[in-house]
Amino acid sequence: MKIAIIGAGYVGLVSGACFAELGHQVICVDNDKDKINALKKLKIPIYEPGLEELVKRNHQHGRLSFTSDIASAVKASLVIFIAVGTPPKENGEADLTGIESVARSIARAMDSYRLIVEKSTVPVETGKWVKHTIEINKKKKVSFDVASNPEFLREGQAIKDFMQPDRIVVGVESKKAEELVRELYGALGAPLLVTDIKSAELIKHACNSFLAMKISFINAVASVCELAGADVERVAEGMGMDKRIGRSFLNAGIGFGGFCLPKDLDAFVSISEKLGYNFSLLKEVKKINESKKLEFIKKIEDNLWNIKEKTIAVLGLAFKPDTDDMRFAPSIDIIEKLQSDGAKIRAFDPQATHKAKGLFSGVKFCKDAYEAAKGSDCMIIVTEWSEFKELDFKKLKRLLKQPLIIDGRNIYDPNKLKGLGFKYVSIGR
Ligand code: UDX
């Protein structure tokens, strides 16, 4: 099938490469000409495991191409995915101007039936507006369908999430649209849930808000565990064994970040309010998430006495492992607060350093964990990269001014670190 994907960001690029892998003919479109020129030279603008290989292979086989000319891509394709950004506005609402502008461009270029699919995360009722925008801007008397097909791709494992999804959600208004989407995804053999457009849009916001709620819930339990002298890891294990609850997204820590959970939570609160419902539960989820970063800073203070003039080795900057994404990373608030308290920062991240460099001033970026630890008063774990689990602790002990590790992600066994002579402080245990 011939597909155009408008927006070559995380979602667009991963979806485009994966659809091409399934045998479809895909054109990825972006108005950022530099990005398109780089992609034409097979330079991938993001770090996502397996993506470069997938893009290269499908490009070589002639199934994946790149352009900044949206009109030609629309003319050449039957199905058009909108995968442009929906960044948060000051008030938490999603900014949908990108979606509107793409819908307008699609309308002007359509010369026969097209299926236009929302892939970006959008608030409920966006489909109605996309349809209206196309209706009033189309040049010819052509028919079209709008559908919603939200993505559930986790950064770091986006390709696996695309290729082996728990389910595919599609909101449609016609049998024809449903059939086209079924054909698109047919090769995956995954369960496909067909709903109306509004429900599909809502499923996405409800999922991400629920995941955020799970994280804030366990983080609140972690605070109670600390007060009671219990171990949140054991509590999460016991909770997770209940099939109704499940163990995933019950990892206590310094809270969630990234470009999806925080933004979708705000957008869901905002659209609910607009529709007349005060989603106070989700406001509390956000409050708990913010407070975890402050609690973490307090742990550092409690163990270093004065933060001023102290040197802190920060391990991990990306919002989570296996990505170089720094958007809404907890490391940003944590480092800024430590710096404003007078600390010197020596930081290391396996992938995100190049992006982090533009975000901080006065941070010494190190080539590995050992260089960061050298001469530091303590080491803090902010992102749980698996390589941090395998560090040489004897070497670290020699390099740090004192053997103090404050772990915001609970990656070490407290007894092991204690046995090695470290003072080890973690979350909720
Ligand atoms: C999320 C959704 O999972 C995905 O389905 C959606 O389409 C996009 O948003 P992503 O932002 O890539 O994916 O990251 P995710 O793996 O969900 O983690 C989000 C944040 O929560 C990270 O900062 C992570 O560190 C944190 N997290 C996750 C926890 O603190 N504890 C957990 O148990 C799980």
Question: Can you walk through the features of this model?
Answer:
This protein has about 425 residues and is of the alpha/beta class. Helices cover about 45% and strands about 15% of the residues. The chain has helices at about 10-20, 35-40, 50-60, 70-75, 95-110, 125-135, 160-165, 175-185, 195-230, 230-240, 260-275, 280-305, 330-340, 355, 370-375, 395-400, 415-420, and strands at about 1-5, 25-30, 65, 80, 115-120, 145-150, 170, 190-195, 310-315, 345-350, 365, 380, 405, 425. The strands form three sheets. It has a six-stranded parallel beta sheet, sandwiched between helices. α5 (about 95-110) links the parallel β4 (about 80) and β5. α1 packs across α3 (about 50-60) and α12 crosses α13. The N and C termini lie far apart (about 55 Å). Uridine-5'-diphosphate-xylopyranose binds near residues 153, 154 and 250.
Give the topology.
Layout: E1 2-6, H1 10-21, E2 25-29, H2 33-40, H3 51-60, E3 64-67, H4 70-76, E4 79-82, H5 97-109, E5 114-118, H6 126-137, E6 144-148, H7 158-163, E7 168-171, H8 175-185, E8 192-195, H9 197-228, H10 232-240, H11 261-275, H12 280-304, E9 311-315, H13 330-340, E10 344-348, H14 353-356, E11 363-365, H15 369-373, E12 378-381, H16 393-399, E13 404-407, H17 414-419, E14 423-425
Parallel strand pairs: 1-2, 1-4, 2-3, 4-5, 5-6, 7-8, 9-10, 9-12, 10-11, 12-13, 13-14
The chain binds uridine-5'-diphosphate-xylopyranose.
